[in-house]
Amino acid sequence: MIDRARLEEICREAGRIAMRQWPGAGHALESWEKSPGSPVCAADLEVDGFLKRELRALLPSAGWLSEETVDHPERLEKGLCWLVDPIDGTRDFIRGRSGWAISVALVSEGRPLIGLLEAPARGESWSATAGQGALRNSQRLHTSTRKELPGARVPADHLPGPDKDLVMVDKPNSIALRVAMVAAGEADLVATLRWGFEWDVAAAALIAREAGAAVSDAFGHRLAYNKRDPRAFGLLVSAPAIHAAAVERLAERAAKFSRS
What residues contact residue 186 under an 8 Å CB cut-off, 6+ apart? Predict the structure, then answer.
């Protein structure tokens, strides 16, 4: 159906393009705010343009949905669609930190078929194909087998009062990399309570699911992709045995914040 070797090479080249502008490697970078609190940089746009050209050439029948491209409703008429975040974790990218990744997913009829994360500043390439498991640098991934929510490891900078029984671990700015940590068994839980976009999570969610993690929105519902409104409220990715307890703990907060 698709030249997988070529797809992986496209993502690696996108990583090389980004690295040529990454301040962490000593490069100067032009950045600005596209809206208050939403940074963007020249590398975002260059990587987006490269991926749009190359992925469309690789699979001309697929639609396109990206954080840095104006959305066009024609994607809704396509059975296949690329979901792309050219640099997820732009804040870390701009600051010269390594917690960013290029996120590419191919979805079919609302479900992810292929997910790739390229994190060149960390020397990591993550990938998954539906039904075939997940890999990081060719190593098979398995989520944790944690059975109890208290003590679960969460990538976070701080924890609210009701969650003080959880354990903080290192938090990259990229939500995709945080989800990938659950896939790799380096965290037990990632949860957000805000409206987020499909391109942020499609690839990582497939990687986590293929590694054995439970994946849902904040209410415990299955995620769907290439929707007319490409958003969902919240994300909850965890070791399978603690997912129900996490949904229950977050239910009141999710209901409140989803209305605000």
Answer: 153, 169
pLDDT tens sequence across 229-259: 999 999 999 999 999 999 999 999 999 999 8
- Per DSSP, the residues of 130-166 read TTS-EEETTEEP-------STT-EEE-S---GGGTTS
Residue 8, phi then psi, degrees to nearest 5: -65, -35
Compute the average pLDDT of residues 177-205. Answer: 97
DSSP state of 98: S
d(CA 177, CA 186): 11
Return the number of other C-beta atoms located less than 10 Å from residue 237's C-beta: 31
Q: Which two tokens stand for residue 140?
A: 């098979």
Measured distance CA(56)–CA(82) in Å, rounded: 9
The rounded distance, in Å, linking the Cα atoms of 110 and 79 is 8
Q: How many helices (H) and strands (E) does the chain have?
A: 6, 14
